[in-house]
Amino acid sequence: MARTASLPPLDLPLAAIAALCKLIARQSIELRHHQRLRILHSLCSHNQRQVAQRLGRARGTVSLWCKRAQLLAELLADLPELPSEDQLQRLLVLTVTDAPRSGAPLTYTAEQQCAVISIAVRKPEVFGLPIQTWTYDELATVADQQNVAPGISARTVGRILEQANLKPQRIKYWENPTIEDEAVFNAAVARICNLYRAAPENLAAGVHTVCIDEKTGIQALERIHPDRPVRCGYPALLEFEYRRHGTQALIPAFEVATGRILHAHVGPTRTEVDFAAALDAAVQTDPDAQWVFIADQLNTHKSETLVRLIAKYIRFDGELGEKGKSGILRNLASREAFLTDSSHRIRFAYTPKHCSWLNQIEIWFSILTRKALKNASFGSLSELRRRILDFIDYFNETMARPFKWTYRGKVLQA
Questions:
Q1: pTM to 2 decimals?
Q2: Which residues pair with 212 in a beta bridge?
């Protein structure tokens, strides 16, 4: 009578064996899973004793994973059709994954862990430390001194904070908008958001919705040595030292409905004359249309030069007055009232103070910085200017599309 022990104990479908082979070939798989998957692969053609000898594993280890794999084989045999390759690979990894264990008893209770978290979310100066940010060592020291978790280690503190998804060592800047009247603030934010949503329809009706702002201090930095290109296994290398060749200011006009830059003014300054010239050039692309310009509260966006330019375009025949004394030009408030007049063919909509993030041009500035300016080297101001203008042409041809604006002026809802 033949010995059944000489037969391969594992009978997996061919699709499962193929998925098993691909898993074994992966370099990203965990070592323990790789070793166990090799055992399963060998069990498809050899008995347990042979597998133990071939792979240098204990018979008990081979027997354990053989039993686990046999359960998988029985499961697959009962299915009306085999799962996909991706699902088979997941089942195989699950088969060779350690079963959950109870683990050692907790060294620190839930109350003690909450107390450690309570320390981490407060500033170090509360505990008399002359520092601004925590390290795990400092948190462990304070927790021990406060008798919150005696003898706790920095590594344990790190695990507790990781489970709570807390990173007290990280800090990000943010700015609170100055809200004097919440109703007025909400109305201003909603007005900007409504303009964005209505921009495609308005453009079809002959109304351009344009975001405009300045990006100042764009530096023309020249690396003193050439860059080293990327190589297999090594990133590109940029020279650390550089020469300064001055700065340029950029004033682009971004059309919301098309995602294109209608015009860009690049120069050494960003005065009210520069801003008015940039706006004038944008309007000249369609001089008889209606225009709505979205801008922030900078004083050059409410200047005398700008008021006179808009008055010329709309053929305003009233008295503008005198800056600082009378009439429309008297002060910022009077000029803003004129520039935002909804009866004008060309008008402005201003974002609330400290809310320039509402201006979509800020998104485009981020694209410009990442794609064209960051890590670049410019031998002169003219080279920098040429790069900016070339990128704008490239952007309009290959990347321009409307931004998907989801903010509606209130807390985002699911």
A1: 0.66
A2: 253
